[in-house]
Amino acid sequence: MNKLILLALFVPLATCLAEPVAVFDVHWGRKKSRQGRSFAIAVDHAAAPQTAANFMHLVQDGFYRKTIFHRVFPGYLVQGGDPITKHKDRSAMGTGGPGYTLGAEIRLRHVRGAVAMARLPDNINLIRQSNGSQFYVCLQSISSQNGKDTVFGHVISGLEALDEISRMPADSNANPDERVEVGRAYLIDRSQLGVRSR
Question: Is 109 part of any domain?
Fold first, then answer.
């Protein structure tokens, strides 16, 4: 009996939830001007099994905590997930990852709300491997990326928060002037969002 209880403690949280989704709580500003928003991502294990499992694992492990959204393009896309952004040196932002890449799983389209993995360009990445942690969210359909990057999920709640973040003032590298930081990223069951399954 005790062995069964002990084994249950080691079962990953994502496998215990009927339909797990990743929730990101983000914030920016200081003291009285501090703002906070949340959004939720549902992954598509059928279309991108390796990428979806990796993303959920990183969320569950707390990998994304204190990373920032380091690229914003108004009404177009936002990008985050780089562990280098936990530090305040902007010179290397957008170049980090977990130390590995993921094989291409290019099946889904870049529609509004699609979540895709970032990657290096074709001239140095012919097999289109994805970065192991950096992702971007499409804020409109981006048909020019169809067939190029791995889409592994969709934002199912809070897309308007990402629209708002995309319009923040940014520098010449599209890095927001204010840090838009992930305070917490965690898994919950989709039913807890109050969002109906499609």
Answer: yes
